[in-house]
């Protein structure tokens, strides 16, 4: 059976391994990221939700406070734009829906920008962010993430390419209009649906992203 695309507007058939087109199964977990691994300083670490919140205020958590938020487990695949896929990854952490409930967005919010260390960013449609399996992961397979894989927090958005889930996340900005994130400004697709092979910005259709 075909895999529904993230907009509910059709189906794309998986390949023989049940993966999105162009992907290959991966053993192990390669380390892929841009720039150096940041040093974690718990006394300085803060996670914040800001921007177009319903009450106009921002909300901040220390590392201890964020770690005390409801912890849930999500089992999902991970698809990297470099064409490897990992099956049945067990992410443990805080669902994006939990943050949306704690800090509701204003009615006009259409997108979020997820901010990470060194000013790295990734933009998401609000419906992708609010998906039930989108999670701010602190654990994988029951173990704390390593620094190379995003400790203390990385975002997992399993139905999109993995660059849409930054490592070393520090906050979420609610937005009433779309803006491109780090890789989206550098030629990657604004949406990043692996079932539609939305890898690069030249593939974008009208309405799928702000002008470059």
Helical residue percent band: under 10%
Strand content: 25-35%
- How would the global form be characterised? globular
Rounded radius of gyration (Å): 16 Å
- Cα(first) to Cα(last) distance is 36 Å
Give the averaged pLDDT, no decimals.
91
Query: Can you summarize the main beta sheet?
Result: 6 strands, mixed
| Number of discrete helical segments | 3
Multimeric state: single chain
Question: Helices and strands, in N-to-C order?
Answer: EEEEEHEEHEEHEEEE
Low-confidence stretches: 1-11
Overall structural class, as computed from helix and strand content, comes to mainly beta
What's the count of strands? 13
Structure characterization notes:
With 212 residues, the chain is mainly β. The protein has three helices and 13 strands. The strands form three sheets. Strands 3, 6, 7, 10, 11 and 12 form a six-stranded mixed beta sheet that branches. Strands 5-4-13-8-9 form a five-stranded mixed beta sheet. A hairpin with a 2-residue loop joins β10 (135-140) and β11. The chain is globular.
Layout of secondary structure:
Blueprint: E1 3-4, E2 11-12, E3 24-25, E4 46-51, E5 59-62, H1 63-67, E6 72-79, E7 84-95, H2 96-102, E8 111-116, E9 121-125, H3 126-129, E10 135-140, E11 143-144, E12 154-156, E13 169-175
Parallel strand pairs: 3-7, 4-13
Antiparallel strand pairs: 1-2, 4-5, 6-7, 7-10, 8-9, 8-13, 10-11, 10-12
Salient structural properties:
globular; mainly beta; 212 residues; 3 helices
Summarize the structure.
With 212 residues, this protein is mainly beta.
């Amino acid at each position: 059976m075909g895999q529904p695309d993230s907009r509910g507007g059709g189906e794309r058939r998986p390949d023989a391994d049940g993966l999105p087109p162009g992907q290959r199964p991966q053993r192990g977990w390669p380390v892929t990221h841009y720039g150096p691994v940041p040093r974690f300083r718990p006394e300085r670490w803060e996670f914040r939700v800001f921007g177009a919140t319903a009450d106009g205020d921002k909300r901040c958590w220390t590392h201890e406070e964020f770690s005390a938020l409801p912890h849930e487990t999500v089992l999902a695949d991970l698809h990297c734009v470099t064409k490897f896929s990992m099956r049945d990854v067990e992410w443990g952490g805080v669902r994006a829906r939990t943050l949306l409930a704690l800090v509701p967005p204003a009615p006009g919010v259409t997108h979020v920008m997820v901010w990470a260390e060194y000013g790295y960013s990734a933009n998401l449609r609000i419906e992708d962010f609010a998906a039930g399996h989108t999670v701010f992961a602190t654990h994988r397979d029951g173990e704390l993430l390593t620094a190379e894989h995003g400790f203390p927090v990385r975002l997992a958005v399993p139905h999109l390419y993995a660059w849409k889930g930054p490592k070393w996340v520090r906050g979420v900005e609610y937005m009433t209009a779309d803006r491109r994130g780090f890789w989206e400004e550098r030629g990657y697709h604004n949406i990043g649906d692996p079932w539609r092979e939305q890898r690069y910005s030249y593939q974008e259709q009208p309405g799928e992203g702000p002008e470059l």
